[in-house]
Amino acid sequence: MIVRLAISTDFIERQRTEAEEAQRLVAFTLNASAGVAMCRGSAAAAVRHYREVLRLEAAGLDGGLGLRLDSLQRLHALHNLQLAMEAATAGPGGGAGGGARGLGGEGNGAGGQAGAGAVVGVSRTLRDATLGADADTEREKYLAHRAGGGGAAATDLLKSTKAVEDARRRCGARGRGAAGCAWWSAVVDAAATSADRGRALLDRVVDGTAF
User: Fold this and answer.
1) Alpha-carbon span 21 to 69, nearest angstrom
2) pLDDT reported for residue 37
3) Is the pTM of this model over 0.70?
């Protein structure tokens, strides 16, 4: 019974991982499609794609599924959704927003009301007001997580640098260049003119017993 339970648990976890990978692939495609839409000047289409990424994330977390988007995908969607919303509202240069402003021109009462805040093809949601703050929070979390190993990496770099400098000093090097290491060429020249043409020295270098 215990073995069967372990197998079931492993199977469920494997399926969850595969589902999460598939979800992230869909999010990647949606983010890319939104970028293409922005390049084509269709901010409204970009907004729909970015919102679908966030809806996909919420659906994956719903019901205890625990399907998580990559943090950078989430940050990408939040940040660029805000930019796409601004572009759509701006009008000319914002793709779909241009059409909205045109409809809101002089002599068009209904269009004028839409142009004041709404954009044709782009509906507002309660989350729009916090997109910037949500993106900043996600950015700080992402940077804090990625920068966590910076201190250890810097320490390792200092150790490696010191080891190189110690080796250079033992070789007689001075400064940043190779000056002072000319004795290597003398060793090679001497070995090359020996009876075995340097074979013995080469064997010792390969074995690590040359020095």
Assistant:
1) 9
2) 93
3) no
